[in-house]
Amino acid sequence: MARTESRAFDAYFDPTWHGAGAPPRPRPAPFHAETQVPQERYKYFQRPLVEHLNPLSTNVLIAPSTKKEELDDGDARVKDAGTQSTYRESEAQTDPYTPAYVVPEGTDPEVLMLEHLKFGEGLPAGAREVEKIEQARAKRHLEANLPPATDECSLALRRRLLEWQEMKEFNIKQKEIDDAHARRLGLLRRALDERDQDREFMQEQRVDTLRQKRGEVRDRALESIQAQRIKTLRKLSLARGRLSQKEPYSAPTPVSNLTGKDARRRKAGRDIISEYANYSSTQYAPITREGTKLDKDSHIFDVTRVAPHLNGHGLLNQLGDEPPARLTETIVKVPIPQSELPAKTAEDRHAATLRQDLATLTSVLEDERNPQAAADRKEAARLAALPAWSPSKTRVEEKDATPEKETTPEDEELAEAHAYFGNLLENVEQGRQSIRELRDAATTPATAAELSADDDKEARRRAVERGAADSIAGVVASSLLDYLSKELVREEEKEALAQLAKTADIERRAREQAETDRREAEERVKARSDEAS
């Protein structure tokens, strides 16, 4: 870099500027410690004169100073600002600088086909990039040599060449897609194989661990059994030795056959074997007065309070002839119909209301079809509401010819008195009815207008009854249709929500599987790249 006349003194005022024509800067003289000693250097080796410190002198040794070799940078006038290389990390790598350019008219250099290549996207160029460059060069050569579209023959030839080039590019693209697909399938196949191998390895590890645990349990059990066997054999050998030294065994006297001091002495040390060997001992038939307490509240099980003491043969025969009713009669409980059970849920209450409305509507329709039956039913209800002494009810009721039990003279007198008063009340009622009929006969007969008014009233009454029946039927039908429509809408919404949830679940599972496959493939590729690096 040449020094300009306008900046002739930059070498003196700018310490970082180095020019080709700058005069050499004077260098400072090197410092030598052994020849040039500072004036106040001795102050660094003094120690304080303090009484309580150690009075011994300190051995101070000065490290020998060696003369270092100075590096001579030479007369270089150029400073490196940065280096662009392929050995740097990809994250810190930058794209090469490309200056602005202008292409002359009529020229199309091939180097412009490489302007889209960047570091990490084609650079540094490999075999694949070179192949693509050759394909682009061939396409460029073909487009440059296409026949002009001047006549029909040239146009057909041009079309065939373009179709051939398009088909060639399509085949190349299809091959790239197939290769990428094959590579992906290979990665997935290797990933699946490795996963299967990992699973088999884990299963083998589990089986080995389980086998080891079971083996340890078996060994511990065998050790315990062996220790128990040795202990039992030792006990048997000791017992056999003691028996060989003693007299022959004689069965001891049972405790139940002992009395007084012998029994108390034997009780102090029980002979369990003799007690269980003798079936007449207290072990099988204990005596309650020897300490066994009766059950709590045992008096409730005393049958003498409710039944006579059976001491004779006659009482036993009477007990057999008169068994209790619960032994001779069979009581079958009729189950309550489902319709009569109390409603617990909203659906049950709705169904009960619907059944009640249907029963009301059915009774109204039956009354319209059979007026005589309706009148009889109303009359029976009216008679049921009358008191028991009413003469009308006494006249309608039928007396049972066979009394349930024998009557006494007092009962006969009461029955005669009841019949007398009943006849008296009946005569009074008949007299009232006769007086009412006479009064009705004495009144003026109804005119034609009154008869027509009565007919109109009857027609209006029938119309009102018919309207009431129709309104009841309409209410029931409308409530039923409303319930059915709401149930239909609810079922449709339920099916739609279920279908939506099912579709969402299927899509979620598909996405999870795709994400899992992608992550596994990435992990495999990353692991292989790490191994390769």
TrEMBL record:
<feature type="compositionally biased region" description="Basic and acidic residues">
    <location>
        <begin position="66"/>
        <end position="80"/>
    </location>
</feature>
<keyword id="KW-0206">Cytoskeleton</keyword>
<feature type="region of interest" description="Disordered">
    <location>
        <begin position="440"/>
        <end position="468"/>
    </location>
</feature>
<feature type="region of interest" description="Disordered">
    <location>
        <begin position="507"/>
        <end position="533"/>
    </location>
</feature>
<dbReference type="Pfam" id="PF14738">
    <property type="entry name" value="CFAP91"/>
</dbReference>
<protein>
    <recommendedName>
        <fullName>Cilia- and flagella-associated protein 91</fullName>
    </recommendedName>
</protein>
<feature type="compositionally biased region" description="Basic and acidic residues">
    <location>
        <begin position="457"/>
        <end position="468"/>
    </location>
</feature>
<dbReference type="GO" id="GO:0005930">
    <property type="term" value="C:axoneme"/>
</dbReference>
<feature type="domain" description="CFAP91">
    <location>
        <begin position="83"/>
        <end position="235"/>
    </location>
</feature>
<dbReference type="InterPro" id="IPR026720">
    <property type="entry name" value="CFAP91"/>
</dbReference>
<comment type="similarity">
    <text>Belongs to the CFAP91 family.</text>
</comment>
<feature type="region of interest" description="Disordered">
    <location>
        <begin position="384"/>
        <end position="412"/>
    </location>
</feature>
<keyword id="KW-0963">Cytoplasm</keyword>
<feature type="region of interest" description="Disordered">
    <location>
        <begin position="244"/>
        <end position="264"/>
    </location>
</feature>
<dbReference type="InterPro" id="IPR032840">
    <property type="entry name" value="CFAP91_dom"/>
</dbReference>
<feature type="region of interest" description="Disordered">
    <location>
        <begin position="64"/>
        <end position="93"/>
    </location>
</feature>
<keyword id="KW-0966">Cell projection</keyword>
<feature type="compositionally biased region" description="Basic and acidic residues">
    <location>
        <begin position="394"/>
        <end position="408"/>
    </location>
</feature>
